[in-house]
Structures are given as structure tokens and as C-alpha cells.
Amino acid sequence: MKRDWESLRHRLDEIRKRLEPGHRPPPAEVERILRERARVLSRTPEPEEDGERLLVLEFLLAHEHYASEVRYIREVYPMRSLCPVPCTPPFILGVVNIRGQILSVVDIKRLFDLPEKGITNLNRILVVQSGATLFGLLADEVAGIREVPVRDLEPSLTTFSGLRKQYIRGITDERLIVIDMATMLSDRRLVIHEEV
User: Fold this and answer.
1) Domains along the sequence of the chain with CATH
2) pLDDT reported for residue 39
3) How far, in Å, CA of 35 to CA of 2, rounded?
4) Residue 155, Cα to own-chain centre: how many angstroms?
5) Tens-digit pLDDT profile for residues 77-113
6) What is the reported pLDDT for 173?
7) N or C: more exposed end of the chain, with fewer CB within 10 A?
8) Handedness of CA 97, 182, 34, 174 (dihedral sign)
9) Within the chain, which residues score under 50 in pLDDT?
10) Alpha helices in the chain (DSSP H)
11) Considering Cα of 110, then 116, then 118, then 119, what sign does the dihedral take?
């Protein structure tokens, strides 16, 4: 089989350009990607015989895999322009301005006493919301969306303690830790009040 080496080189150059920092696809391509994502996310899951399933967003924290139900995640935002706020608990990393809305950012690693990894360009802010409660959660990296059968969730490990145990809904066989985002969003300790 004869190969078209020139065509392959051209394709590799195009891929290399797309991987370079600061590369932005053309507006038409961005719109196509967003429409495809919206189509995938808006589909109604088909009922399965093995019971209820959770649609979750999987992300990494200190080399462990965590997940949150997608229904609590309003958007995923790149980590930029974080402004520290004095006189806040250590788990409040600071605030960010997302399209004119100021959100506090919670560092779950500090909240759960996990090892620090430092901020990189892979960090993402998960904007979570339930009713009027809205804030950002710092994730080391976002892995993607997947379904988790509820029957596969085991209670949290006995080694978990404090807030970490309180905020965990369960753990899968693959060691995916599913956060109980409803509990986290309703916890008044995570809401910063102006009167300190």
C-alpha cells in the first residue's frame, strides 16, 4: 500500500499547531464543538436493567479520582486571575471573576487534608450550584464525564474522617470517590459571610 507522506506531514503539522499553547480554533469550529457537547449532554439516558445510574464529572485531586454529579456543575472554567482574600479560612483559595460574577474558590485538597500539588495550567475551577448557593471548586485536572451505577457505590472508607467523610457519597470498585455535592453546597461553613 502506497502512503502519501506529504499528506501525513501536513496533518501532523496541523495537529502540532493545535496543541501549541495559546492556539484557538476558528469560531466556526468552537461552535461546532460546543453544539456537539450540548447534544451529548442533553440526551436522555436510556433506562438500564441494572438500576439507577449517576452521570458524573470525574476529576483529579492529589492523584486520586473524584466525581460530582453533573447536575450540580454549571461549568468548568480554566484557572486564571485568582485573587486571594484575607481573613478567610485556609480552604478558601481566593475569588475569581467569571464573566462579571465574583465567585469564591474552595480548595478541596485543603478541606480534605490531601497533599498539595501546586497550581498548573491543567487546574480547572468547577463552578457548582444548587439554588442560590454558587462557588468554585479547584480541581487538579478534569478527566471527563461518565456514568456510575448507584448500586456500585460502597460507603466511604473507615480511613476517611471529618469533612472528607461527611462529603463523600460513596466509592466505586475502581476507587472513584463520588462527592455528595448536595451536602457540600448546603453546608454553611463553606459560605463566606462579610461580617467576620
Assistant:
1) 1-43 (no CATH), 54-190 (2.40.50.180)
2) 85
3) 37
4) 22
5) 888 788 888 888 888 888 988 888 888 888 888 888 8
6) 87
7) N
8) positive
9) 194-196
10) 5-19, 27-42, 108-111, 162-166, 181-186
11) negative
